[in-house]
Amino acid sequence: MLHQKQVRDLMFPVTHPLSGQMALSEAVELILVSGQLGLPVVGDRKEVVGFLSEHDCLRYLVSSSYYCDARIQVADIMHQEPLCVSPSDSVIDLAQQMSKARPKNYPVVENGRLVGMITRRQVMMELNRTLRECKVAI
């Protein structure tokens, strides 16, 4: 049942989180390879310290590529204090939060450490799956 589903049921692992000291070009490569719209930035103890999205990168990529300036690091442009969720959060509660808040991707944090990520697309797919099952039951 959907009301019992938790974020842990839909989240996926982040195999290559970003670090604040990472060069912009390296971070962009990891974002592109991940297939996500952005990735969490973690500190030494895997605590989430920021989030870097494609949107955040684009403006800096334009100027950096034009001037061949490779000095920009993730910490310079990341969104600090991103919205995070817990693995035990309800999928319904998260869907309601996502309908009001802008982020499309949320780091999943447990005991102060990154344990995964969940996207708006995953939540929509789960809600739609549940809706389709309701139609079959009627």
Automatic annotation (TrEMBL):
Gene3D superfamilies (UniProt xref): CBS-domain (3.10.580.10)
Xref: InterPro entries: CBS_bac, CBS_dom, CBS_dom_sf, Diverse_CBS-Domain
Entry-linked CDD domains: CBS_pair_bac
Residues of the CBS domain: 11-70, 78-133
Pfam families: CBS
Keywords in alphabetical order: CBS domain
Transmembrane domains' residue ranges: none
PANTHER family named among the record's database cross-references: CBS DOMAIN-CONTAINING PROTEIN, CBS DOMAIN-CONTAINING PROTEIN CBSX3, MITOCHONDRIAL
Name this polypeptide is given: CBS domain protein
Source organism per UniProt: Marinobacterium mangrovicola
Lineage: Bacteria, Pseudomonadati, Pseudomonadota, Gammaproteobacteria, Oceanospirillales
